[in-house]
Amino acid sequence: MAKKIxxxxxxxxxxxxxxxxAEAAIPWAEIIKQAIKRVVRAMDLLVQRRQNRQIRLxxxxxxxxxxxxxxxxxxxxxxxxKQRDLYKEYYQELKKVKAxxxxxxxxKAVADKQAAILKQYQTAWLLFRNDKHFTxxxxxxxxxxxxxxxxxxxxxxxxxxxxxxSFTLQMTDVKRLEIIERAxxxxxxxxxxxxxxxxxxxxxxxxxxxNEFDAKVVxxxxxxx
Length: 225
Prior knowledge:
By secondary structure, this protein is mainly alpha-helical. The chain is built from six helices and no strands. It has helices spanning about 1-15, 20-70, 75-130, 135-165, 175-205, 210-220. α1 packs antiparallel against α2 (about 20-70) and α2 runs parallel beside α4 (about 135-165). The chain starts with a helix and ends with a helix.
């Protein structure tokens, strides 16, 4: 699906002006933004349900421990043996709940970085496409680079969606962690590359300032020292 979207976008970019290219990129960025929101929202709901279940399980566990404390020492071993199977599912479910909550914070952190990537792209591209220090050819190159960044970000979002869906499917904790870390590493790399690319373009614009006043405007525009 991502390849089809990429193909269509490239056809649009091939015949569009820089301004039209910028407008064409917005829907693709919005798709990723909405996907990130879906991931976070799904995890929020999942964690909320798991937390409610955890409270019930912990109450049951506490009641169990209180009952055990009231028994005579010589009766505890026999009683625990009889109750072990009865409460086995509760303890297993409690472990799952805690695991989901721990996954939540990791997934949320990655999703937040993906949202930051989109925000930085949109802010930088809006400034660059209106910067007279760049040629039309350079703007087209920027657009291609940003398009690649968006595609890669979309793939990372798909990995997070896969993890969220995995809680209703058969997937090991090891596999979930592997997917999350893969998405996290890729997201970090994308963010670093985006920051580097934006910084290079800002410095290039500054180097082309015609006079001191022009340089001051560029510095103010891009937050350069």
